[in-house]
Amino acid sequence: MDFIDLKTQYRRLKPAVDSRIAKVLEHGQYILGPEVVELEQKLAAYVGSKHCVGVASGTDALLIALMALDIGPGDEVVTVPFTFFATAEMIALAGAKPVFVDIDRGTYNMDAAKLEAAITPRTKAIMPVSLYGQCPDIDAINAIACRYELPVIEDAAQSFGATYKGRRSGGMTAVGATSFFPSKPLGCYGDGGALFTNDDALARLMREIRVHGQDRRYHHPRLGLCGRLDTIQAAVLLAKMDVFDDEIVARIRVGQRYATLIAEKFGTGASAKVHAPEVEQFNTCVFAQYTVEVEQREIVETRMKSLGVPTAVHYPLALHMQPVFKHLGYSEGSFPSSETAARRVMSLPMHPYLTDAQQVQVVDALAQAVA
């Protein structure tokens, strides 16, 4: 069993993917070719955003957003400690200080009720993460940001295609940043990412920053980076967009079936041996991962592997406990919800082509592993 099955998806899309790539090979515009422009237009329309800027990765997307907002030394950016390292890494790489807010234990996203206490006169932006495929409480976060006149950058690396109160992830804040890493809900065949905004000036700055800060050839009014989305990756994404809505429906169906199987097998409540993720009633989740909580995770993983079921652990050490962030002054116990999640979470096989029989196999193996 594959943890993420990209081969079945490719077999489904082979004619379209091969044709799209062949066209790029024929015209030879491998950097910022016409497919990049076409993709940006389609992605912007999909998200409901005025502008889309294709970039080289989700990590670059975060850094470019911070640079466009002129965030640097002496500034603070509020985010969460339970996420992939790149979220806080890019804040620090921009020269700013990551300031953490603990997560909600049910959704693993920023606890908006704790956000305001983390804002200081040095705060220059808020960067919530839409973890595992669903958005945090964007309205509550935006309301707080508005009171303090702060931009919000949604780290939507795992949630492209998800909705919050009927609006799509990536298009609800000053800037949305997403990733097209192959395992993401919409993934290319290498690294890739995109930025979304309704602000004309920010869009212009982000486009300049992705090409070394130039506003025209060999004219550089600002520093930038080599952050372009290459044309072949854009071609792959264009082919995948044709089936993306179908795959989201399938992802939601797989996620709901996991929830049903786990509830039937383990029950619900504090005494359950396995805890399934919660999806807010106003959200749709695209399940970039399907992540459960278990006790004695290492033992459970080993037993499941012996039964032929792969698992993965994402973020086993909360960011405030990473050695590189020791200077921030946090310690064990600073963010108990994030620390508990980091000790207990384990992801199960998850992709839109997972069959009912495979899901039963996964949950049966899980039951044996935790027994």
Describe this structure in words.
- The chain is α/β, with parallel strands linked by helices.
- It has two domains: 6-238, Type I PLP-dependent aspartate aminotransferase-like (Major domain) (Aspartate Aminotransferase, domain 2, 3-Layer(aba) Sandwich), CATH 3.40.640; 244-370, Aspartate Aminotransferase, domain 1 (Alpha-Beta Complex), CATH 3.90.1150.10.
- The protein is built from ten helices and 13 strands.
- A four-stranded mixed sheet has the order 1-9-8-5.
- Strand 6 (163-164) and strand 7 (167-168) form a beta hairpin.
- Helix 2 packs parallel to helix 7 (231-266).
- It is globular and about 65 Å long.
Q: What's the domain count?
A: 2
Q: What class would the helix/strand composition place it in? A: alpha/beta
Question: Which value, in Å, is the CA radius of gyration?
Answer: 21 Å
So what's the oligomer here?
Answer: single chain
Taking the sheet with the most strands, its summary is:
4 strands, mixed
Query: H/E order of the elements?
Result: HHEHEHEEHEEEEEHHEEEHHEH
In round numbers, the mean pLDDT is 97
The shape is globular
Query: So what's the CATH class of the largest domain?
Result: Alpha Beta
Kindly report the CATH topology of the largest domain: Aspartate Aminotransferase, domain 2
* CATH-level-2 architecture of the largest domain: 3-Layer(aba) Sandwich
Q: In what range is the share of β-strand residues? A: 5-15%
Proportion of residues in helical segments: 25-40%
Strand order, main sheet: write it out. 1-9-8-5
